[in-house]
Structures are given as C-alpha cells and as structure tokens.
Amino acid sequence: MMKIELISPKLLPEQRRVWNITEFTSLVFGVPRYSPPSLALLTLAALTPPDVEVEIIEENIEEIDFDKPVDLVGITFNTFLAGQAYKTADEFRKRGVTVVLGGIHAS
Fold it and tell me: Rounded to two decimals, what is the model's pTM?
C-alpha cells in the first residue's frame, strides 16, 4: 500500500508573535482577524484513492517524524512559510522520499 504524508509547515518563532496559533487569528496592527487553516490538505486526502494511506500533519500541533516510511510527501504553504517548507522538503529528500510542493507560493 502506498503511503502519503501531507504537511502544513509550522510557524517560526518570530512569526508566532504575529499569529495566534490556537485561534488562527492575525495579530498584525493589534487587530485580530480570523484566518482559517487551509483546506488544501483535507481536499487532497479526500480525493486520494481509498487504497492509498494518507496522513495529514499540522506541524504547529505535532512534530514530523522524518524517519517514518512514506512514499510521497506533499507540503502546502504560503510565501511566509517558504523557508520552513523548503527545510522540511530537504529533510525528506535526503532520505530518498519524493516531495511535491503546493500552495499559493509554489503556484
């Protein structure tokens, strides 16, 4: 069975001052604005054939296990998360895993 891991990268410490992770609100200029989590990974998981095992990792909530055996990794990200996404992709590529980048920045 093919195993796919879909990842949403974590915010870096300097970005955590601007975003409230638990409420997904922007704290820019002191005005809270609602910013929902991306539905991209949920949509991809729902469209994946049933004979493929899919796991979604929200890195702000749980750590990535780079040594877990997976066949393919998909990472979605905005421009402000590009650095973290590239580091995550590089770690998987070092282990010989194929990585696909998506999201507004990659597009």
Answer: 0.78
